[in-house]
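Project standup — Tuesday

K.O.: blocked on the structure for the chain from last sprint. Re-posting the sequence here as requested.
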Amino acid sequence: MLSQPSSKYRPFPPIPLPHRQWPTRTLTKAPIWTSVDLRDGNQALAQPMNVAQKLEMFHALVKCGFKEIEVGFPAASNTEFTFNRRLIEENRIPADVAVQVLVQAREDLIERTVESLAGAKKCIIHMYNSTSPAQRRVVFGMSKDEIIRMAVRGATWVKERLSRLEDAGGQVQLQYSPESFSATELEFAKDISEAVMDVWQPTAERRMILNLPDTVEVAMPNVYADQIEWMCTNIRNREALIVSLHTHNDRGTGTAATELGLLAGADRVEGTLFGNGERTGNLDIVSVAMNLYMHGIAPGLDFSDINGLIKMYENCTGMTVPPRQPYAGELVFTAFSGSHQDAIKKGLAEWESGREHWDVPYLTIDPSDLGREYREVIRVNSQSGKGGVAYLLESEFGIELPKEMQREFGPIANDLVDALGREVRGDELKAMLWKEYVDRTAPWELIHFHADGVDGTFQCRVSLLQNGTELKLTGTGNGPIAAFVAALQSVGAPVAKVANFKQHALSSGTEASAISYIQLQLTEGRLRWGAGVDTNIEIASIKAVLSAMNRAG
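H.V.: unblocked you, prediction finished:
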């Protein structure tokens, strides 16, 4: 890297917009959404989708609620043309969905594009030519006037062929993009757009789409917003236009540029699922839609089966959704940190108790709205604390550890997880709990227990193994557990009393079992937790006492 990058690079000039309005506005509704997955996203793939894959994705996009879908560049290849024809001839396009096709301002390509649309009920012809100084200089070697003439000729060729589609009952909307708009002088972008408008003659009743792409991010997103507001304010016949955004992510701010562009007056957004596209990608349309959703604005798109959508996307494109991708990534609703897990656990409990509006720490939306399960939210590794361990055991197995026991088992589990050096599953945590508490059978092991009570006084008879030697004991107390503790004390066991006790059912049905948690205070003052599991809840409690004794050493 250069020590003085200014010797090679220059900042993007600010936009003269002293009375800009967009910073004080608030979004209140969703824009018109247009998916460009099948064209812009597809052209960025190392192995473009075949017709079958494109059909699968098209139907998935329709299911999500997209009413405008750019299906390809039909003049570019036979695959693109064939796909368009299959959609139309096999009646795969719902009546309320418009298919959009892309074409350069060249007559032969426009002719082929119109041929591909024969019989379409609803379509958008998207014509473009590039307009930035670098494109004019390096690619075309043309002046501004020559570039405008190119756009006007293209617009005229499109207009001359409209009757072939409209006379057959098709509804056609026209769209123009001054490609590389974000790097184009605003006055020139306005001039060339108005020149195309002069040919197409849009009205408030029959608006054309003016797409103003951030083809390559060359400035901060606030600059793009200024460009959009300047165009919306200065272009002629704004009421006859649908102003559209098409952002890329070269600077990592495609979402911000789109949201600020909407504040600046745009009506429509083009993007792809999960941001697939050239270089660093297109706008992730899922992110913008869900950002609206989390503020209570209905996005008009349905991502309630996000896992199914991801599976389709990965199968069709060969791409993968990064684990930290907003809303969709595997880990975006996941907490490994102990303090985060504790806050999420308490927040979810508050929500489930009847709170009116979602306000769970660290979770901007309810994962279940996207078809995710709560068990995905909290995952355990060496960075996790007692809260995450407890949540996983409870959510997957119904094991409700008492808070004091969580403080004891949490560090034990974390040490074991740390030794493994990886994330652990719920069943692995359960096995750790069983090994530490439930399966402890030495030096004390239960053979038989029975207790009878009259008028609040209980007497128990118990058979135990102590280091392999059988003991037959009796004891009396105000309950079965107290009677058992008295029996242990009669042979010098170092137990003073039961300090804490909790129990609950683990399952239902004929094989139902219960789990008991007991904290013993030993004669020297130490406290130890134990746990026992049995189909008989009284026996589970006796086993829990012995578990604590065995753990006391």
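K.O.: great, moving the ticket to review. The chain has three domains: 33-317, 338-438, 444-552. The CA atoms of residues 255 and 300 lie 18 Å apart.
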